[in-house]
Amino acid sequence: MIKSMTGFGRGEHGGKLKHVVVEIKSVNHRYNEVLVKMPRQYNLLEDAVRRYILSRVSRGRIEVFMKVDEAVTKPRDVQVDKELALAYYKALKELAGITETFLDVGVIQLAQLPNVLKVEEEEEDLEIIWQDMLPALSQAADALMSMREKEGEKLHLDLLERLKDIKALHGKLCEKSPKVVILYREKLQSRLKELLDDVKIDENRLTMEVALFADRSSINEELVRMESHLSQFAGILQENNPVGRKLDFLLQELNREINTIGSKANDLEITQYVVEVKSELEKMREQVQNIE
User: Cβ(132)–Cβ(17) under 8 Å?
Assistant: First the structure.
């Protein structure tokens, strides 16, 4: 079943160390592009996030937004740089003596001086953090794929309906095509009689002229190729693999054939069918641009 490239998914998980919220949105794109936005301190895990998304999505522009909060209070230790604190105190005492001022400094003032106190946190284990991230990422990806599949079902039904309409028009073109030469002969013969009145018409010349017209205006080859493309298009719609590029290529080929038919067939009714087919193909092309 075909999938759309448009979708959204959200996942949330409270792990051993982190509470993670992931949102993923995707839009149509010619290739497969993954953009990850996550807290800077976890940038080393960005490639892992990108690889996971690429394993789930074959095509589209995918944006991953990840929010990471503490799930538990991390153990912290405050260290005192005794030597630095003492050095600060001696320097202040010396400065007080030089300036002949009273030294009035307390422990709070000393603690506020640069680097006297240092908060040490336990180094984070990125492997554990990744295990906290993965369930939320997987949940968001599942929701994204579900939406893409639902959108794909709608696109599939719409394309089948339009394909049915084009096949019906193709049938009308096949039915009308042989009649064009017959009508041309009748019109040419009638016109010659009007112009030449009592002069006998040379049947050999008339047959030759009709044959030349038939050769110039023949659309049989285009109709055969068009039927083949339509059949391939219907078959590809049933595949489970990404098919957007294949369908886009076939639509280009169908456009080429119908344009040739329009330029060769010297008939108003055929021209009307051509316009209708081109209109349906354009609508299909817009839909196919959003298929994975």
Answer: yes
141 and 254 belong to one structural domain: no
292 residues of the chain, pLDDT tens digit each: 789 999 999 999 998 888 999 999 999 998 899 999 999 989 999 999 999 999 999 999 999 999 998 766 666 677 888 888 888 888 888 888 888 888 888 888 888 888 888 876 667 788 989 999 999 999 999 999 999 999 999 999 999 999 999 999 999 988 887 766 555 555 555 554 555 555 565 566 656 655 555 556 567 788 899 999 999 999 999 988 899 999 999 999 999 999 988 877 777 888 899 999 999 999 999 999 999 9
Tell me, yes or no, whether 182 and 208 share the same domain. yes
State the total domains in the chain. 3
Point out the domain boundary residue: 113, 148, 183: 148
Q: What pTM value is reported for the model?
A: 0.71
Tell me the C-alpha to C-alpha distance, in Å, between residue 63 and each of 15, 32, 141, 170: 23, 11, 11, 42
